[in-house]
């Protein structure tokens, strides 16, 4: 508790660190408490103002939320100052940094541990929440008021956990001269980008959720919320896309097992909200264009946030062992309670209000139509979520019934691969289907993707590929790429200006193309990986998949915070230097530094397993085909989303043009 | 309320309760909530090797034991595998045991084909990893010849660190 943690502060005050340092801890704890009070006040006032439709109180509630966000920002600044000034009177600073840690990583220690990363989460929620409230002011009093209230409840919950259960401002009774240092695995450039992006993505999912729930509470399940929600859902989705890819890139470069995705529980829980929001970004178009699937869209947005809370619980409570597990902490039960409240709230709200939306307009669409493709795509994505969810909770559900079971990569691959293949096929066909009903012209349009798939199949057959997954994945990817390229080709030939006027559509096609590139990279690297373990004396050679490496010898390098054992391997005119770092300050913890060199068709990936006393060195060498395609494809996806949505045309104007009523009050 | 929505609601509540109960069970059995084992008699644990024979840690008394928790999906476990294998061959007076946990049978056997352990390794058949407070993998426990846990190490071992701990339990 806070009172306890502040009590021994007098000892810290006597230490060399001085009085100013202790004040940082007090100020930080005070800022969190002030934020909590403001957040709670904002929540109560906003709900009351929503019920009463009182503009004055709506305004005050909103300002209280801004105040809570400002207090969170103040706490974040104080923690960062404490880190950068090496204020080891704070337990968090002492546990996650030391004097030898490079400054950039000391700054990154902000989100390197449980408490600090929660504060970062809360900070992003406060900032993006404030931005969404400013942008959403036009949504109408009651929706805005309820959205403020829900955001304030979520913010207050996090501030409560930070202020009372897991404070980053807890003081140590004695100020140590040096800290423990950051976990060696986290001492990497990847630490500067992956966690902040993925945590920001997690936090951002709260905003679409708040507005969806607010629309339901206010009984305004109309098109206006879609426009507002889509923007923030897209932001959360983009952050999560980048976060997932950066995590894969980091795992690939740091962990040294030659792969980038291990179906670890923590990877799974980051993937599920992304899948749900991918479904929403597609199905929301059905609502925008055809006024259908209102309840479904609300459900998807709420599901994404519930999966985020579920994921946060899984990651931070330590219920499932994982490579990402945080240190021991008491926050598990609090997050379980929060998850329970969120699930009940969402379920009751959806059950009570979603059906209140008026029935869809006009005739139901034909199964073979754009709408039909979106619905099928949504069902497939929900199927993937179900597979991943079951694999993640199985150890717990089976444990509850007394026989603990766990599933590994083969389960996920077997269960999810057919669904991914079907999604890939839809990626080729869906964009060519017209709204309402597909006719003969559509069949003609499908000839290009069909031809591309056939060509890919012939090329693979001629190249001697006998792997069934490759023979399915690559032709489908070729078909999907052909679909995008024919759509672009048609636009360029007929009316080039539509590329700009309908940039959301063509941006999305670019993202599809990026996804195809990612799929090819994943298929090639996953199915075509080659691996060899070898022990070499200086001058010895190893050849794998036609690549030859020559071991030139090893050396020891003493750096500020660790000792590096470096082995040299000659590869053509390049030298690869895989190494092992030993951190003296951390009980001799060791870390591998992988050496990777990229050729146009494959990565040569070398891990130093050990340097032996007789001068030989043991290596694990991988040849991973087309891994760079994954990173390049990811960049294309983000580029497509950014280009497609920069200066987005108002959806209300679009709806007015199509004569779809904007407000359908329940 | 129609009959259909009542049935749907009941199913949703049932599944939701199972989920929340499972998560609560997980909290009760979280690897992290267990008391530390350092300085105490090693909790009972047995594994079954590919040949089908069982190795019981509590029956290895009289010999120091290096108990390594690993899994086939765990990259750092593969990384330290060579270090452990060499140490096991160099120290015939120490019993090395590899406890595979949170793994699949197929994952385990595929791993054994690619990286066969020179010492007994296999899935846990008696006891749990939780009784050792294992949260992340790999985790290694150093047990002296009296069966007392003297040290533990989380993360991949290098040969220098391993030798340090081996010296601890040998004396």
Report on the structure:
The complex is a heterodimer of chains A (about 675) and B (about 170). Chain A has about 675 residues and is an alpha+beta fold. Among the domains of chain A are: about 1-185, no CATH class; about 530-625, no CATH class. Chain A is about 65% helix and about 10% strand. Chain A has helices at about 1-5, 10-15, 20-50, 55-85, 90-95, 105-110, 115-135, 140-165, 190-205, 205-220, 225-255, 265-290, 295-315, 330-355, 370-400, 410-430, 440-445, 445-460, 470-495, 500, 505-525, 625-645, 650-655; strands at about 530-535, 540-545, 545-560, 565-570, 575, 580-585, 590-595, 595-600, 600-610, 615-625. In chain A, strands 2, 3, 4, 5, 6 and 7 form a six-stranded antiparallel beta sheet that branches. In chain A, strands 1-10-9-8 form a four-stranded antiparallel beta sheet, covered by helices on one side. By secondary structure, chain B is an alpha/beta fold. Chain B folds into two domains: about 1-35; about 35-170, Glutaredoxin. Chain B is about 35% helix and about 20% strand. Chain B has helices spanning about 5-30, 75-90, 105-115, 160-170; strands spanning about 45-50, 55, 65-70, 95-100, 120-125, 140-145, 150-155. In chain B, strands 2-1-5-4-3-6-7 form a seven-stranded mixed beta sheet, covered by helices on one side. In chain B, helix 2 (about 75-90) links the parallel strand 3 and strand 4. In chain B, about 40% of the residues are buried. Mean pLDDT of chain B is about 85; it is low at about 30-35. The interface between A and B is large, with 52 and 50 residues.
């Amino acid at each position: 508790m806070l009172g306890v943690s502040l009590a021994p502060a007098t000892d810290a005050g006597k230490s060399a660190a001085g009085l100013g340092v202790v004040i940082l801890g007090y100020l930080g704890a005070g800022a969190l408490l002030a934020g909590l009070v403001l957040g709670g006040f904002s929540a109560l006032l906003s709900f009351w103002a929503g019920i009463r439709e009182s503009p004055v109180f709506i305004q005050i509630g909103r300002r209280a939320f801004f105040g809570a966000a400002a207090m969170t920002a103040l706490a974040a600044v104080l923690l960062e100052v404490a880190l950068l000034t090496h204020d080891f009177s704070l337990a968090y600073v002492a546990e996650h940094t030391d004097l030898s840690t490079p400054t950039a990583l000391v700054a990154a220690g902000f989100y390197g541990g449980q408490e600090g990363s929660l504060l970062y989460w809360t900070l992003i929620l406060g900032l993006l929440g404030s931005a969404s409230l400013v942008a959403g002011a036009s949504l109408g009093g009651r929706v805005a008021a309820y959205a403020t209230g829900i955001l304030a409840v979520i913010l207050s919950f996090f501030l409560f956990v930070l202020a009372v259960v897991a404070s980053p401002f807890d003081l140590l009774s004695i100020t140590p001269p040096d800290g423990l240092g950051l976990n060696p695995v986290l001492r990497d450039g990847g630490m500067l980008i992956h966690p902040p992006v993925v945590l920001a993505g997690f936090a951002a999912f709260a905003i679409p959720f708040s507005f969806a729930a607010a629309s339901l509470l206010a009984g305004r399940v109309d098109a206006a919320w879609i426009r507002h929600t889509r923007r923030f859902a897209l932001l959360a989705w983009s952050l999560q896309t980048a976060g997932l890819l950066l995590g894969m890139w980091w795992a690939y470069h740091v962990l040294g097992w030659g792969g980038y995705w291990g179906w670890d529980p923590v990877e799974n829980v980051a993937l599920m909200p992304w899948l749900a929001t991918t479904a929403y970004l597609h199905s929301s178009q059905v609502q925008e264009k055809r006024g259908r699937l209102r309840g479904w869209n609300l459900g998807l947005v709420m599901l994404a946030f519930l999966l985020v809370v579920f994921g946060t619980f899984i990651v931070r409570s330590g219920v499932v062992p994982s490579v990402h597990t945080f240190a021991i902490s008491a926050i598990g039960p609090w997050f379980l309670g929060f998850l329970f409240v969120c699930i009940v709230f969402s379920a009751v709200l959806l059950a009570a209000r979603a059906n209140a939306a008026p029935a869809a307009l006009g005739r139901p669409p034909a199964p073979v139509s754009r709408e039909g493709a979106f619905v099928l795509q949504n069902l497939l994505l929900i199927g993937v979520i179900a597979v991943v969810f079951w694999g993640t909770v199985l150890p717990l559900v089976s444990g509850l019934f007394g026989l603990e079971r766990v599933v590994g990569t083969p389960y996920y691959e077997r269960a999810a691969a057919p669904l991914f293949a079907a999604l890939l096929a839809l990626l080729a066909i869906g964009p060519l289907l017209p709204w309402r009903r597909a006719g003969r012209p559509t069949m003609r349009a499908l000839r290009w993707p069909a031809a591309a798939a056939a060509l890919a199949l012939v090329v693979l057959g001629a190249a001697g590929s006998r792997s069934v997954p490759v023979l399915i994945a690559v032709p489908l990817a070729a078909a999907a790429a052909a679909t995008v390229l024919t759509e672009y080709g048609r636009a360029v030939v007929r009316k080039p200006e539509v590329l700009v006027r309908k940039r959301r559509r063509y941006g999305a096609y670019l993202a599809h193309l990026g996804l195809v590139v990612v799929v090819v990279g994943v298929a090639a690297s996953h199915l075509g990986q080659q691996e060899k373990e070898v022990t070499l004396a200086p001058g010895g050679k190893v050849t794998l998949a036609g690549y030859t490496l020559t071991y030139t010898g090893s050396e020891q390098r003493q750096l500020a915070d660790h000792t590096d054992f470096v082995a040299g391997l000659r590869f053509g005119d390049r030298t690869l230097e895989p190494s092992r770092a030993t951190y003296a300050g951390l009980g001799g913890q060791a870390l591998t530094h992988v050496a990777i060199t990229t050729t146009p068709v494959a990565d040569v990936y070398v891990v130093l397993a050990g340097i032996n006393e007789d001068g030989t060195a043991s290596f694990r060498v991988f040849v991973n085909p087309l891994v760079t395609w994954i990173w390049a494809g990811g960049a294309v996806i983000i580029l497509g989303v950014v280009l497609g949505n920069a200066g987005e045309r108002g959806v209300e104007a679009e709806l007015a043009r199509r004569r779809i009523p904007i407000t359908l009050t329940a | 309320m129609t009959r259909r929505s009542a049935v749907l609601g009941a199913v949703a509540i049932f599944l939701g309760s199972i989920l929340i109960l499972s998560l609560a069970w997980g909290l009760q059995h979280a690897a992290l909530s267990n008391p530390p084992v350092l300085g105490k008699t090693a909790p009972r644990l047995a594994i079954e090797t590919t040949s089908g024979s069982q190795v019981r840690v509590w029956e290895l008394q009289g010999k120091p034991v290096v108990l390594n928790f690993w899994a086939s999906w765990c990259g750092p476990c593969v990384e330290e595998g060579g270090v452990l294998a060499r140490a096991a061959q160099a120290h015939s007076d120490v019993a090395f045991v590899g406890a595979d946990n949170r793994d699949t049978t197929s994952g385990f056997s595929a791993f054994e084909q690619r990286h066969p352990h020179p010492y007994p390794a296999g899935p846990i058949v008696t006891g749990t990893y939780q009784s050792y407070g294992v949260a992340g993998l790999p985790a290694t426990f150093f047990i002296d010849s009296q069966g007392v846990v003297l040290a533990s190490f989380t993360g991949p071992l290098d040969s220098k660190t391993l030798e340090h701990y081996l010296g601890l339990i040998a004396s």
